[in-house]
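Colleagues,

For the teaching module next term, I've prepared a clean inverse folding example: a structure given as tokens, and then the sequence designed for it. I'd like students to try predicting residues themselves before seeing the answer, so please don't circulate the second half yet.
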């Protein structure tokens, strides 16, 4: 079930609370360049300008940036390019990194964060000789934001530490991001432009890290893997205007998430951890029954049992506008019978 993702929960007529992509239309300063790029589809895409723009945004050199067809492709390139002796994935988190490693023939060990710790990185049991460690921040599906110092403590000489920051821009100011860190040994940071900007269908992301490591990934990347429209999006999203808008969107998200969490708690549903991203994780008794009943009443939510370390009583809920959240919680409250955790 590692290849199961939230889009499989969605169907016509259902309110989509299963996919963590912002549903509002992208701004015209983003859609305009994407549309204009269609006039140049006869040319092979050239990533140089977009790469330089992303590098400037994060205070890096262009050779420390690799554009990819979404963050998911980055995990495939990692699995193809690296030859880890002992690979570890910290769960629960996005399952594509482990899936890609297994598909490439690598053995994978799991380190499971504990519910009682709020799924935080408290004394994670990472083997000392692990030479590849993958962790999310903020983590999908728990929405937990780990302190940058806790992530940095994982890195060491002789180890590649991969931080999935696909949802980093959902946190105002990105205070715990390591995207600009050029000192930690073996650090690779994977980013996505599809979540906040509603561009999941366009497929655009990137990897930040030491040039030598990125060169190994480039050797396995298909030619012209990032399309011309996706490059136009990357260039626009690296602008100062985009960074300012990201922060504004993230600040509105904080309020919408607080509204959802408050409504859930008043309904007797405890939210796991301290959510910091565009989704929350809840646990309800009879989760499979509740999820099916929610579908019958018009709401699609993300099942939890496909995430290692979780079971069927866990459900992930995307943060939407307050009216949608209120309508959802009203339905959910009729399906659960008081505090569940």
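(Answer key — instructors only)
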């Amino acid at each position: 079930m590692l290849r199961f993702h939230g889009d499989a929960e969605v169907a016509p007529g259902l309110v989509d609370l299963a996919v963590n992509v912002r549903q509002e239309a992208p701004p015209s300063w983003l859609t305009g360049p994407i549309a204009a790029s269609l006039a140049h589809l006869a040319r092979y895409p050239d990533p140089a300008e977009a790469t330089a723009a992303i590098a400037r945004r994060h205070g890096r050199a262009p050779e420390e940036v690799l554009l990819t067809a979404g963050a998911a492709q980055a995990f495939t390139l990692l699995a193809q390019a690296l030859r880890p002796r002992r690979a570890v994935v910290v769960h629960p988190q996005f399952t594509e990194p482990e899936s890609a490693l297994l598909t490439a023939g690598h053995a994978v060990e799991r380190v499971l964060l504990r519910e009682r710790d709020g799924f935080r990185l408290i004394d994670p049991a990472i083997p000392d000789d692990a030479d590849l460690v993958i962790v999310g921040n903020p983590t999908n599906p728990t929405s937990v934001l780990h302190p940058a110092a806790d992530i940095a403590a994982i890195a060491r000489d002789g180890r590649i530490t991969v931080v999935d920051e696909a949802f980093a821009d959902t946190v105002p100011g990105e205070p715990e991001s390591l995207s600009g860190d050029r000192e930690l040994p073996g650090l690779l940071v994977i980013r996505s432009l599809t979540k906040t900007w509603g561009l999941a269908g366009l497929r655009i992301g990137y990897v930040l890290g030491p040039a030598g490591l990125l060169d190994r990934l480039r050797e396995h990347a298909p030619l012209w893997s990032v399309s011309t429209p996706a490059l136009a999006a990357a260039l626009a999203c690296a602008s100062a205007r985009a960074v300012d808008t990201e922060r504004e969107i993230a600040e509105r998200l904080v309020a919408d998430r607080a509204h959802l969490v408050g409504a859930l708690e008043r309904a007797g549903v405890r939210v796991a951890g301290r959510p910091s991203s565009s989704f929350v994780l809840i646990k309800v008794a009879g989760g499979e029954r509740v999820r099916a009943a929610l579908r019958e009443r018009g709401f699609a939510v993300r099942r939890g049992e496909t995430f290692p370390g979780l079971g069927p009583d866990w459900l992930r809920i995307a943060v939407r506008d307050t009216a949608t959240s209120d309508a959802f919680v009203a339905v959910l409250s009729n399906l659960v019978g008081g505090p569940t955790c």
